[in-house]
Amino acid sequence: RKEVEQDPGPFNVPEGATVAFNCTYSNSASQSFFWYRQDCRKEPKLLMSVYSSGNEDGRFTAQLNRASQYISLLIRDSKLSDSATYLCVVNLYGIRGSARQLTFGSGTQLTVLP
Amino acid sequence: DVKVTQSSRYLVKRTGEKVFLECVQDMDHENMFWYRQDPGLGLRLIYFSYDVKMKEKGDIPEGYSVSREKKERFSLILESASTNQTSMYLCASSHNDRAYEQYFGPGTRLTVT
Question: Taking CB atoms and an 8 Å cutoff, what residues of chain B touch A89?
Fold first, then answer.
C-alpha cells in the first residue's frame, strides 16, 4: 500500500468551477502535511501547508482530517492558470526518515477548460 | 530567489555507462535530495544529504550512489546505467528552518538505451 494515495484524475472542469481533491495517508503518526503544485514540464513548488484547523489562501482551502487520515484541497472559482498536477505531501518525521524528508503522492491532474 | 540548477536537461546514455548528474543550489541550504519521477509512481526519494559528506538512503537507493563534497553541490551517480533507470531526475534542497519547503531544480530527463 502506498504511504500517500491520490486519485490521479484527470479532473477536467470549466472555468469558474469549484473542484476538490482528496488524498489519504497510511501512517497515523504522520506529522505534517502539504500541497505542492507541478505545472506541465516544470518542477514542483510548495502551494500551501495543511493544518487541522484548516487554512485558506485566496481561492485555495486545505483541510486535514487526522481521524480519517485524509487531506483535501478545494479550489474555488477555477482559473485556466490553475491547470497543473497537485501533489499531496506528508512528513513522516519520527516514523521513518528525518524531519527533512517528505513523501510525495503521485499527484492529481487538473485541467481547467475555457 | 532560490536557485537549484542541474547540469543537463536531457541526457542519453548507453547501458553499462557510468552517469553523473550534478546539482547546485545557491541558498546555503543544509539539505539536498535526489528524486526520480515516473508516470503513475510520482516522486520517489533516492538519496538525501543533510550536511557535507553525509548521506542517507531514501526509498529506492539501489543502483545509485551520491556524493556531497561541498555544501552547495550534490551529485547522483549511476555506476552502471540500466534501461530501468530511464526517468526524470529531480534535485531539491531545503533549509533546516523550513524543511518542508523543498526547492526543486528543472530536472534531467535521462534515457538509457
Answer: 100
For residue A10, is the peptide bond before it cis, meaning its omega torsion is within 30 degrees of 0? yes
Per the model's pLDDT, the better-predicted residue between A30 and B33 turns out to be B33
Q: For cell 503544485, what's the residue?
A: A37
Confidence check: pLDDT of B2 > 80: no
Backbone angles phi, psi at A87, to 5 degrees: -105, 125
Task: Report d(CA B108, CA B87) in Å as an integer.
Answer: 8
Residues of B with CB under 8 A from a CB of A: 30-31, 33, 35, 40-43, 45, 48, 50, 56, 58, 90, 94, 96, 99-102, 104-107
All residues of chain A having their beta carbon less than 8 Å from the beta carbon of residue B105 are 43
Interface contact flag, A8 B40, Cβ < 8 Å: yes
CB-CB neighbors (< 8 A) of A32 in chain B? 100
Q: Which residues of A37-70 are buried (b: 16+ CB within 10 A; e: fewer)?
A: bbeeeebbebbbbbeeeeeeeeebbbbbeeeeeb
- Taking the C-alpha atoms of residue B1 and residue A40, their distance in angstroms, rounded to an integer, is 21
> Using only C-alpha atoms, what is the Rg of chain A?
14
The reported pLDDT for the residue numbered A92 is 78
The string of pLDDT tens digits covering residues B80-111 is 999 999 999 999 999 988 888 899 999 999 99
- Surface-to-core class of residue B22, CB atoms within 10 Å of its CB (0-12 exposed, 13-18 middle, 19+ buried): middle
Q: Which three three-digit cell numbers place residue A19?
A: 473542484
